[in-house]
Protein backbone atom coordinates (compact mmCIF):
# COMPACT_ATOMS: atom_id res chain seq x y z
CA UNK A 1 0.00 0.00 0.00
CA UNK A 2 2.75 2.53 0.82
CA UNK A 3 4.23 2.19 -2.67
CA UNK A 4 0.82 2.53 -4.31
CA UNK A 5 0.04 5.62 -2.23
CA UNK A 6 3.33 7.24 -3.24
CA UNK A 7 3.02 6.32 -6.92
CA UNK A 8 -0.45 7.85 -7.07
CA UNK A 9 0.98 11.26 -6.12
CA UNK A 10 3.54 11.38 -8.95
CA UNK A 11 2.92 13.98 -11.66
CA UNK A 12 -0.10 13.45 -13.88
CA UNK A 13 -1.78 10.40 -15.41
CA UNK A 14 0.28 10.91 -18.57
CA UNK A 15 3.55 11.04 -16.62
CA UNK A 16 2.63 7.96 -14.60
CA UNK A 17 1.82 6.07 -17.80
CA UNK A 18 5.18 6.89 -19.41
CA UNK A 19 7.54 7.08 -16.45
CA UNK A 20 9.19 4.11 -14.76
CA UNK A 21 10.14 3.18 -11.22
CA UNK A 22 13.71 2.65 -12.41
CA UNK A 23 13.84 6.17 -13.82
CA UNK A 24 12.58 7.62 -10.55
CA UNK A 25 15.31 5.71 -8.72
CA UNK A 26 18.25 6.51 -11.00
CA UNK A 27 17.32 10.20 -11.20
CA UNK A 28 17.84 10.23 -7.42
CA UNK A 29 15.99 13.46 -6.81
CA UNK A 30 15.74 14.42 -3.12
CA UNK A 31 12.02 14.92 -3.80
CA UNK A 32 11.47 11.60 -5.63
CA UNK A 33 8.16 10.20 -4.39
CA UNK A 34 9.08 6.52 -4.71
CA UNK A 35 12.44 6.58 -2.95
CA UNK A 36 11.18 6.93 0.66
CA UNK A 37 8.71 4.01 0.45
CA UNK A 38 11.16 1.81 -1.46
CA UNK A 39 13.88 2.43 1.13
CA UNK A 40 11.39 1.80 3.94
CA UNK A 41 10.48 -1.49 2.25
CA UNK A 42 14.20 -2.40 2.15
CA UNK A 43 14.27 -2.58 -1.63
CA UNK A 44 17.40 -3.67 -3.49
CA UNK A 45 18.55 -2.81 -7.00
CA UNK A 46 20.31 -5.16 -9.41
CA UNK A 47 22.88 -3.53 -11.68
CA UNK A 48 24.00 -5.34 -14.82
CA UNK A 49 27.03 -4.78 -17.05
CA UNK A 50 29.11 -6.82 -19.47
CA UNK A 51 31.14 -7.97 -16.47
CA UNK A 52 28.17 -9.38 -14.59
CA UNK A 53 25.67 -8.31 -11.97
CA UNK A 54 25.77 -6.77 -8.52
CA UNK A 55 23.07 -6.05 -5.97
CA UNK A 56 22.92 -3.06 -3.62
CA UNK A 57 20.34 -1.97 -1.11
CA UNK A 58 18.56 1.09 -2.44
CA UNK A 59 19.74 3.17 0.50
CA UNK A 60 23.34 2.17 -0.26
CA UNK A 61 22.81 2.83 -3.99
CA UNK A 62 22.06 6.52 -3.38
CA UNK A 63 25.22 8.62 -3.13
CA UNK A 64 23.86 12.15 -2.85
CA UNK A 65 21.32 14.50 -4.41
CA UNK A 66 20.91 13.34 -8.02
CA UNK A 67 23.84 10.96 -7.53
CA UNK A 68 23.97 7.16 -7.39
CA UNK A 69 26.62 4.45 -7.40
CA UNK A 70 25.68 3.18 -10.85
CA UNK A 71 28.67 2.90 -13.17
CA UNK A 72 28.83 4.18 -16.76
CA UNK A 73 28.71 0.62 -18.12
CA UNK A 74 25.78 -0.52 -15.94
CA UNK A 75 22.02 -0.65 -16.30
CA UNK A 76 19.48 -0.98 -13.52
CA UNK A 77 17.80 -4.23 -14.53
CA UNK A 78 15.85 -5.32 -11.47
CA UNK A 79 14.24 -3.91 -8.33
CA UNK A 80 13.75 -6.40 -5.50
CA UNK A 81 11.18 -5.63 -2.80
CA UNK A 82 10.92 -8.12 0.09
CA UNK A 83 7.40 -9.11 1.06
CA UNK A 84 6.23 -7.78 4.40
CA UNK A 85 5.17 -10.35 6.97
CA UNK A 86 2.02 -10.39 9.05
CA UNK A 87 1.07 -7.44 11.26
CA UNK A 88 2.98 -4.84 9.23
CA UNK A 89 1.41 -1.45 8.59
CA UNK A 90 2.47 1.27 6.17
CA UNK A 91 1.68 4.88 5.34
CA UNK A 92 2.88 7.63 3.02
CA UNK A 93 2.45 11.33 3.70
CA UNK A 94 3.20 14.15 1.26
CA UNK A 95 2.91 17.92 1.28
CA UNK A 96 3.17 19.90 -1.96
CA UNK A 97 2.21 23.31 -3.26
CA UNK A 98 -0.90 21.89 -4.94
CA UNK A 99 -2.88 18.66 -5.37
CA UNK A 100 -1.78 17.69 -8.90
CA UNK A 101 1.61 17.77 -10.66
CA UNK A 102 3.14 18.56 -7.30
CA UNK A 103 6.79 18.16 -6.37
CA UNK A 104 7.06 17.19 -2.73
CA UNK A 105 7.93 19.96 -0.33
CA UNK A 106 8.14 17.18 2.25
CA UNK A 107 7.12 13.54 2.28
CA UNK A 108 7.48 10.63 4.66
CA UNK A 109 7.16 6.86 4.37
CA UNK A 110 6.51 4.75 7.45
CA UNK A 111 6.65 0.97 7.69
CA UNK A 112 6.26 -0.76 11.04
CA UNK A 113 5.18 -3.99 12.66
CA UNK A 114 2.72 -4.01 15.56
CA UNK A 115 2.72 -7.25 17.53
CA UNK A 116 -0.24 -8.87 19.29
CA UNK A 117 0.44 -6.81 22.42
CA UNK A 118 0.29 -3.58 20.43
CA UNK A 119 4.05 -2.92 20.55
CA UNK A 120 5.87 -1.27 17.65
CA UNK A 121 8.69 -3.31 16.11
CA UNK A 122 10.97 -3.05 13.06
CA UNK A 123 9.95 0.56 12.44
CA UNK A 124 11.32 2.24 9.32
CA UNK A 125 10.99 5.99 8.80
CA UNK A 126 12.22 7.61 5.57
CA UNK A 127 11.46 11.24 4.68
CA UNK A 128 11.72 12.86 1.26
CA UNK A 129 12.80 16.44 0.51
CA UNK A 130 13.96 16.65 4.12
CA UNK A 131 17.60 15.59 3.74
CA UNK A 132 20.09 15.88 0.84
CA UNK A 133 18.77 12.55 -0.40
CA UNK A 134 16.19 10.14 1.06
CA UNK A 135 17.59 8.14 3.95
CA UNK A 136 16.26 6.40 7.03
CA UNK A 137 16.06 8.13 10.42
CA UNK A 138 17.49 5.60 12.91
CA UNK A 139 16.95 7.75 16.02
CA UNK A 140 13.28 8.18 15.18
CA UNK A 141 12.93 4.48 14.45
CA UNK A 142 14.55 3.65 17.79
CA UNK A 143 12.20 6.05 19.58
CA UNK A 144 9.12 4.34 18.12
CA UNK A 145 10.23 0.74 18.58
CA UNK A 146 9.13 -0.77 21.87
CA UNK A 147 6.34 1.75 22.40
CA UNK A 148 2.71 0.72 22.76
CA UNK A 149 -0.05 1.92 20.45
CA UNK A 150 -1.95 2.77 23.64
CA UNK A 151 0.48 5.34 25.03
CA UNK A 152 3.10 6.31 22.44
CA UNK A 153 3.91 10.01 22.85
CA UNK A 154 3.38 11.40 19.34
CA UNK A 155 4.51 14.89 20.32
CA UNK A 156 7.82 13.53 21.57
CA UNK A 157 8.29 11.41 18.45
CA UNK A 158 7.67 14.52 16.35
CA UNK A 159 10.34 16.44 18.24
CA UNK A 160 12.84 13.60 17.80
CA UNK A 161 12.15 13.45 14.06
CA UNK A 162 12.61 17.21 13.66
CA UNK A 163 15.84 17.17 15.64
CA UNK A 164 17.22 14.25 13.65
CA UNK A 165 16.42 15.93 10.34
CA UNK A 166 18.25 19.10 11.38
CA UNK A 167 21.21 17.05 12.63
CA UNK A 168 21.62 15.78 9.06
CA UNK A 169 20.94 18.98 7.12
CA UNK A 170 22.04 21.68 9.54
CA UNK A 171 20.10 24.92 9.84
CA UNK A 172 18.98 26.10 6.39
CA UNK A 173 16.64 28.77 5.04
CA UNK A 174 13.86 26.16 4.86
CA UNK A 175 14.37 24.81 8.39
CA UNK A 176 11.75 27.05 10.09
CA UNK A 177 9.15 25.54 7.74
CA UNK A 178 10.38 21.96 7.51
CA UNK A 179 11.19 21.39 11.18
CA UNK A 180 7.59 21.62 12.46
CA UNK A 181 6.16 20.14 9.25
CA UNK A 182 8.16 16.90 9.39
CA UNK A 183 6.91 16.49 12.97
CA UNK A 184 3.34 16.79 11.70
CA UNK A 185 3.95 14.17 9.00
CA UNK A 186 5.34 11.53 11.36
CA UNK A 187 2.47 12.16 13.79
CA UNK A 188 -0.12 11.86 11.00
CA UNK A 189 1.44 8.63 9.76
CA UNK A 190 1.55 7.10 13.24
CA UNK A 191 -2.01 8.20 14.02
CA UNK A 192 -3.29 6.56 10.83
CA UNK A 193 -1.43 3.32 11.50
CA UNK A 194 -2.51 3.20 15.16
CA UNK A 195 -6.14 3.68 14.14
CA UNK A 196 -5.86 0.91 11.56
CA UNK A 197 -4.17 -1.44 14.04
CA UNK A 198 -6.86 -0.86 16.67
CA UNK A 199 -9.56 -1.50 14.06
CA UNK A 200 -7.93 -4.80 13.13
CA UNK A 201 -7.48 -5.85 16.76
What report would you give on this structure?
The chain is of the alpha+beta class and 201 residues long. The protein folds into two domains: 2-80, Uridine Diphospho-n-acetylenolpyruvylglucosamine Reductase, domain 3, CATH 3.30.465; 88-200, Enolase-like, domain 1 (2-Layer Sandwich). The chain is 39% helix and 26% strand. It has eight helices and eight strands. The chain has helices at 2-8, 13-18, 21-27, 35-40, 58-61, 138-144, 154-169, 175-200; strands at residues 44-49, 52-57, 62-64, 67-68, 75-80, 88-96, 104-114, 120-128. The chain has a three-stranded antiparallel β-sheet with strand order 2-1-5. The protein has a three-stranded antiparallel β-sheet with strand order 6-7-8, sandwiched between helices. Strand 7 and strand 8 form a beta hairpin. The chain is globular, with a radius of gyration of 17 Å. GO terms for molecular function: FAD binding; oxidoreductase activity. Residues 1-86 form the FAD-binding PCMH-type domain. This is FAD-binding PCMH-type domain-containing protein. It comes from marine sediment metagenome. Keywords: FAD, Flavoprotein, Oxidoreductase.
Mean pLDDT: 91
In spatial order, strands of the major sheet run 2-1-5
Derived from helix and strand composition plus strand pairing, the structural class reads: alpha+beta
- Relative strand content: 25-35%
**Number of domain units:** 2
Q: Predict the CATH topology of the largest domain.
A: Enolase-like, domain 1
The parts where pLDDT drops under 50 for at least 5 residues are: none
Protein name: FAD-binding PCMH-type domain-containing protein
InterPro entries: CO_DH_flav_C, CO_DH_flav_C_dom_sf, Diverse_Substr_Oxidored, FAD-bd_PCMH, FAD-bd_PCMH-like_sf, FAD-bd_PCMH_sub2, Mopterin_DH_FAD-bd
Organism: marine sediment metagenome
Pfam families: CO_deh_flav_C (PF03450), FAD_binding_5 (PF00941)
Amino acid sequence: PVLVEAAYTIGSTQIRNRGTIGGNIVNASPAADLLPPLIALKAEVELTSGKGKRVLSLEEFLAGPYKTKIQANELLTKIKIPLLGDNYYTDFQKIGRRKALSIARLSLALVTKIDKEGIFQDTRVVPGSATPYPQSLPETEKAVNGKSVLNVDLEEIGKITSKEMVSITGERWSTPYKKPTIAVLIKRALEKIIKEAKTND
